[in-house]
Amino acid sequence: MVYILRKELTYEKIEETYKALSLIFTFENLTEEDVKNALTKKQKDFEDAVQMETAERVGADFIITRNVKDFMKSPIPAYTPLEFMQRVEFDD
Fold first, then answer.
1. DSSP H or E segment with residue 63
2. Threshold 0.90, pTM exceeds
């Protein structure tokens, strides 16, 4: 998340954003097992494979990414941020 946000925001704004999002979402830890399993996937992008492994391990409902096409074979559905926001139900 920080990798993406740092291109547009200051670190202070990133910290503020993280704190706000952590009220809604759970941010999971990466494990050594996730990395080992990702290596066996032979994905074009290793970082994507790590995200898929971690998402699967924690039972994530979805992955939010700007690069959905690299997650076509993911066992967890991937959405762009806009697609995700369009799917979220907000209570008024």
1. strand 63-64
2. no
Q: How far is C-alpha 57 from the chain's CA centre? A: 13
The encoded tokens of residue 34 equal: 């996730």
Could you write out the three-class secondary structure of 7-51? CCCCHHHHHHHHHHHCCCCCCCCCCHHHHHHHHHHCCCCHHHHHH
Residue located via tokens 């066996």? 40
Q: Please state, in angstroms and rounded to a whole number, the distance separating the CA atoms of residues 65 and 78.
A: 7
pLDDT of res. 92:
52
Distance CA 37, CA 53 (A): 7
